[in-house]
Amino acid sequence: MAAKFPPKCPPQGDHPLLEKVKQTFGGAVLNHGVTPEGHLCVLVPPDKIRDVAAAVKNMGFDHVLSLSAVDYAAEGRFMVTYIFASYLTPELRSQLLHIRAEIPRDNPKIASIADIYPSADYEERECHEMFGIWFEGNPHMGKRFILDPDCCVDEKTGKPLYPLRKDYKVPDWGLTG
Amino acid sequence: MSQALREFLLKKAKLESLFKWGVRWSLWPVHLVTSCCGVEVAHTSGPGFDAERWGVLPFHTMRQSNVLLVEGTITRKMAKVLKQVYEQMPEPKYVIAMGACAVRGGLFWNSYHVVQVDTVVPVDVYISGCPPTPEAVIRAFMMVHNKIKGKPGPYVEPVKVDLTPFLPPPPKPPAKPAPQQAQQAPAA
Question: What is the mean pLDDT of residues A76-89?
Fold first, then answer.
């Protein structure tokens, strides 16, 4: 499955990071693109995300700047987006590396990278709370992290609702009139 | 002060006007800064606007102050803190909801996690704006003054200045044409 990147992210063969990424990732690169800011986006299969994270750590990126997800509700998939950055490697300080992985929307599970990158722990917990993505291996899955325990709960079944999904309906608390 | 002594002072000794006067000029707000409106309150208390001229002294604990100034978005978790802070304040106490977020939700009006302030505590004065200017904050304290005096509302006396000696004289209205000539012209 070669996902389509947004039209603002065309592939660019002579990006300075691309050769090194293709060498270190092995065959895990499904597709790539370059954002308007000049950062490299790489699409990887979701079952290899731990290998990819270890390879990225070997390249010199030492922390996860951001970890989030995009809900493509009509196409039935989530795109989990990791952004890696570096403080300690001087030649990588001007670069951000975007890693994306697509998972199905009806069974959103992906391996956790919180033991490789400890800065991804809070981001994974928030992403789980907002989108319902289950990061396998993170011990805090299934708990509330930021949200109020009373809100975003289905009143009939008692199951948690995920407020940043496209099909979430904001309850009428008198604010909308 | 016991309740009996308080009633004696207010009813028998007729010190209620003195009591109101004292409350009016010592409105000490406790800040509940949850958003960027706190910057404007810093300007309000700073030397540029200097709200302490009206007795508005920013204070750091809620147990010694009598105005709760809600500056910004109140989420569902922060609403519990707001309720606790309001219940710890001594009587008489007043609540000012500052900014669009506190009044109506503001930018986050259809959010899953934002509540209005007046669904949690009773609000005396609303200030609109995103964020409101320091003049608007001072004006809100004037509205609290008016509420203590017994005539609530944004009553501000305009400053009247007579500028007529410094202005050019108004232009004279153009002379109207005589109506009889206008009637005679189409007839001829």
Answer: 91
Residue in A148, A150, A175 closest to B110 by CB: A175
Query: Which residues of chain A are within 8 Å of residue B115 when distances are taken between CB atoms?
Result: 173, 175
Can you read off the two tokens belonging to residue B56? Answer: 């508005």
Domain boundaries along the sequence of chain A: 18-111
Q: Select the residue of B77, B112, B119 nearest A163 (Cβ to Cβ).
A: B112
Give the rounded percent of residues in chain A with a pLDDT score beyond 90: 35
> Residue-wise pLDDT tens for chain B (188 aa)?
688 888 887 777 778 888 889 998 999 999 888 888 889 999 998 999 998 888 898 888 889 999 999 998 999 899 999 999 999 999 889 999 999 988 888 888 888 888 888 888 999 999 988 889 999 999 999 899 889 988 877 666 677 888 888 888 888 888 887 766 555 555 55
Tokens 């009143």 found at: A155
Look at the domain A18-111 and name its fold. Answer: Beta Polymerase; domain 2 (3.30.460)
User: Which residues in B lie closer than 8 A to residue A175 (C-beta atoms)?
Assistant: 104-105, 109-110, 114-116
Q: Does B11 touch chain A (CB under 8 A)?
A: no
Q: Do the chains contact at B115 and A173, CB–CB below 8 Å?
A: yes
Domains (ranges, CATH) in chain B? 29-149 (3.40.50.12280)
Residue of B nearest to A170 (CA): B112
Q: How far apart are CA B40 and CA B12, in angstroms?
A: 43
B116 at the A interface (CB within 8 A)? yes
Question: Residue A134 corresponds to which tokens in the numbers above?
Answer: 């289950």
Instruction: Report the predicted TM-score, pTM, of the whole model to 2 decimal places.
Output: 0.75
DSSP letters for A118-166? TTHHHHHHHHHHHH--EEET-TTTTS-SSS-TTSSB-TTT--B--TTST
Res A122: pLDDT: 93
**Given an 8 Å threshold on Cβ–Cβ distance, is A170 in contact with B110?**
yes
Between CA B90 and CA B97, with CA B93 as vertex, the angle to 5 degrees is: 135
Q: Do A176 and B109 touch (CB under 8 A)?
A: yes
CB atoms within 10 A of CB A168: 15
